[in-house]
Amino acid sequence: MRVLAGVVTGVVLAFLGLGSATAAPVPDAPVQQESTRDNGLQAAARNVELRKTIPDTAGAISINFVQYRHRDVMFVSGTFGLKTYDVTRQDEPKLLDHLTKKELALPGDDPEQRFWENEDVTVDPKRKLVFLARERSAFGRQPGNERPTGVYIISAADPGKLELLNFASMGTGHITTCVNDCQYLWTTGYDGTPSTDPDTYRRSGKVFVTDLRDPRNPKTLTTYVDTKRNQGETHMTHDVQVDAEGVAWVAGTGGTRGYYTRGWHRDPLTGRVREATAYDPVPYAGGAAPKLDMPTSFSHNSFRPVGDTVEDGPRPTRENPAGSLLLHTEEAFDSPTCKDQGRFVISSLQGSTRGESWRATPDKPFTLKTVGVWSPDDQEGTVPGPDVFCSAHYFDVQKRIVAYSWYEQGTRFLDITDPTKPIQVAYWRPEGAVSWAPYFHRDRIFVADFGRGVEVLKLTKGAYDAQETHTNVTLKTEPVKESARNADSPRKRLPLAPDPDYGYGCPMLRGGGCGEGSACC
């Protein structure tokens, strides 16, 4: 790994400090669902095989993949920085390079502390670029002190020799996402807007737009996107996902809203046809889920099955035609059993394409129609409350199966063929798990587990049989007993702490070199 000479110019001069997997099982042979390295307890699992646990990846947060001719490369972002792996043979990942915390550290950082957070690593598969969003709490930066935020721009032309090209300083750095084929970045999160409002999520509320046509000279613009997103009031933006038709969906407090970022479209707010751009997009559809289904109105991330991804989502019907459904997550922790909030919601976009969400006010709110809801509460494989760290987080979708992270409730697999009745067909909840985000890649699922590291899973035939017959393997009439546990071996939990800006919406680990009981980011 090397830092490219000559990049320390402009903003970089101010901030940039210069500075292998184990043997695989026999192909297609099931791997014993091994217990954790800490206490020897077997995982609670059904219709899932563990194929590989990748060493030295604890603290993994997000994953992405890029095809290099005949080689598949996986990018893993975490508290350790950025790692690349050759995953052409999926059960035999090979470490290629590691962009370390020391190499990412800016002046004033403590490189012994954690890189934070880049919750959804973004890649440009054409130019082979990787983007890491830097949070204000990175490297132990505390409120009241200078806390630089922005996006690191990394060349992965050779994934075995990552090159740090630049650091684009901006007013936020939670999650960054490519729009318009990575010619622009949309960056979301808390932006530090001064406010005395006790509601953290009301202290900011805009998407930062960065011109990335020249990655060595990124330019963050002075115009913002998706303001006044919560019934006409300012609230937090969190995540952006671009669907197969190019619509950019911004999730956050107040739901999920989609924008055209290119082409000519009728603007529902003016009635005129105009050109959509990344810095002046045209509203398309979306809004908040009803309070009954998403009480906090905090949508964490989303997916709209459309175009060449329509077969991944629910089966289209006359009531819910192709492109009319939005899958989104509520991240919330006031209900530790996931009984009342922190759920997976499927909403209809019908009736939201005339600017309804953009015209809404607190006195005249607008909500989407709910089609289906699911949570692990009272399901097989679920750890009963009341002290469980439970909330929906990131998900991925393939062939009408949703792979879903639920923190300490592990990774769940839902059949969404019928969007009105999502059912669980498989689950993986090992000891010490804090499932952050799962990713389908060919016939495997790579899970970024904050506690255990990256794990490679495979669904068994039983999962697909359950999907084919729409057989729910999870529903129970009372909370189930915890699998693979006895009274003499209490469940091991990670010492999670609230983020200083986001609270438990983006939890961190306590301790770890930051001082006893302190939050280390």
Q: What would you note in describing this structure?
A:
With 521 residues, this protein is mainly beta. It contains four helices and 35 strands. The chain is globular.
Q: Which helices and strands occur, and which strands form pairs?
A:
Layout: E1 2-3, H1 11-15, E2 44-46, E3 48-53, E4 60-68, E5 71-78, E6 81-86, E7 94-100, H2 101-104, E8 122-124, E9 129-134, E10 149-155, E11 163-170, E12 175-179, E13 184-188, E14 207-211, E15 219-225, E16 237-242, E17 248-252, E18 255-260, E19 264-266, E20 273-275, E21 282-287, E22 299-303, E23 325-330, E24 344-348, H3 356-359, E25 369-374, E26 395-398, E27 401-405, E28 411-415, E29 423-429, E30 435-441, E31 444-449, E32 453-459, H4 461-469, E33 496-499, E34 503-510, E35 519-520
Parallel strand pairs: 1-11
Antiparallel strand pairs: 2-29, 3-32, 4-5, 5-6, 6-7, 8-9, 9-10, 10-11, 12-13, 13-14, 14-15, 16-17, 17-18, 18-21, 19-20, 22-23, 23-24, 24-25, 26-27, 27-28, 28-29, 30-31, 31-32, 33-34, 34-35
Which labels suit this protein?
single chain, 521 residues, mainly beta, five-stranded mixed β-sheet, five-stranded antiparallel β-sheet, disordered C terminus
